Amino acid sequence: MTREEALLKYVLRLGDNALILAQRLVQLVAHGPELEEEMANANFALDYLGQARMFYSLAGELEGKGREEDDFAFQRDEREFCSFLLLEQPNGHFGDTIARSVLFEHFYIPQLEALANCSEPRLAAIAARAVKEIRYHQRHDSQWLTRLGDGTEESHRLIQESLDDLWRFTGEMFEGDEIDDIVRDEFGGPDLGQIRETWQHNIAALLNEATLRMPGEQWMDMGARSGRHTEHFGPLIAEMQYLQRSYPGLRW
Amino acid sequence: MLPAITEDAVWTYLQDVPDPEIPVVSVVDLGIVREVRVDGERIEVDVSPTYSGCPATEVIEESILSRLQDEGFATVSINRVLSPPWTTDWISAAGREKLREYGIAPPVGSASKRELLGRPKVHCPRCGAEETSVVSEFGSTACKASYKCGACLEPFEYFKCI
To answer: B53 to chain A: which residues are within 8 Å by CB?
Structure first.
């Protein structure tokens, strides 16, 4: 694989993560637990969607075959999406949504911080822009995790269950492949080993504050980097792509 | 033949282009117009989006384009510039005053990481009181949070420091 091919695939993966989480958060609109939280999550979705658009536009430039952001979002099949399995998991109850966001944001922030200093200037610019937004999300979601964990007996039990259920999807975030290696070595991209340490340290501190227990070592579900997804992914993109699949090239 | 245009004149025209969501401030007040370059009849304007997903970005670019075209300049191009990322630190003093008069508390302090994580002391834009509290981290748009005043009891929006 050439360094250019690796960079293109890496940028597409970034776009996929942002798009799929955006799509999940959008599904909370009109279904949020309360108005303020509904607006918060809709705003998060908007940030992620904006980031996905920037990553896909850059991917289009890198590829140079005339594909644009909409082609990447709406004209690819399930196996071509390399988003983390964590992000496609259903919104569930509010604790599930918060736990999913917290586990991802603690990975995404150090990833973006490293990318903001990488040698591909367009990617660095997007990362520097995006990380400011995700820090704000993380603050909001971490506060909720603490509030639910250190809240009532019921909220504590439910958020602990959310963490236990989602934990098996966290391992793959740190399992790099050739593409991660090339982007790290050739473009000064993130070191996944370092991110794992940062993530474990910060998550442990947060769970401690939230009076929650860190789930133990366990089997990890993997597949994102090769486009193998859980059963929740198909319905998600079927809904997301419906309009462009039915009316290809449709524009507002 | 049009008279020669100066960069200063372009900046003056752009003072009239309102932000579509907070029309009391102009795109210049907000600090999202980064640079203006004039080469003969050709005008180039660099614009930074506030947030990645800001739905107003396209509308703002269109408004800038049409404002300059109204003045008769046909060859205007807009560049979207991401780096360095926009920060609320670039909102002008006049812009902050306009926000306050409009009822939106302007961002407090500078957008350093430390202050983003701390809780800023936001004064009520109506009565100036210090006793205010957060109702929600998000308001009607991604760039604002919802607050209420403990003195005059009025709800208000706070332009987040980012």
So the answer is: 45-51, 53
Q: Is there a contact between B136 and A39 if contact means CB atoms under 8 Å apart?
A: yes
Tell me, what's the pLDDT at B113? 52
In a domain, A221, yes or no: yes
All domains of chain B in start order, with CATH: 7-80 (3.30.300.130), 93-159 (no CATH)
In this structure, is residue A251 part of a structural domain? no
State pLDDT tens for residues B61-102.
999 999 999 988 889 999 999 888 899 999 999 999 999 999
Tell me the sheet residues that pair with B47: B33, B80
pLDDT beyond 70 at A249? yes
- Write the CATH number for A8: 1.20.1260.10
The verdict on A47 touching B (C-beta cutoff 8 Å) is yes
Is the confidence metric ipTM above 0.85 for this complex? no
Q: Residue A124 belongs to what domain range?
A: 3-246
Helix/strand/coil for B44: strand
Helix %, strand %, coil % for chain B, to 5?
25, 25, 50
Among A46, A129, A140, the residue with its CB nearest the CB of B82 is A129
Look up residue B47 and give its two tokens. 């614009």
Q: Domain total for chain A?
A: 1
pTM, rounded to two decimals: 0.90
Measured between beta carbons, the chain B residues lying within 8 angstroms of A46 are 51, 53-55, 142
Chain A residues close to B51, C-beta within 8 Å: 46-47, 50, 133
- Tell which residue, A134, A143, A160, has the closest CA to residue A37: A143
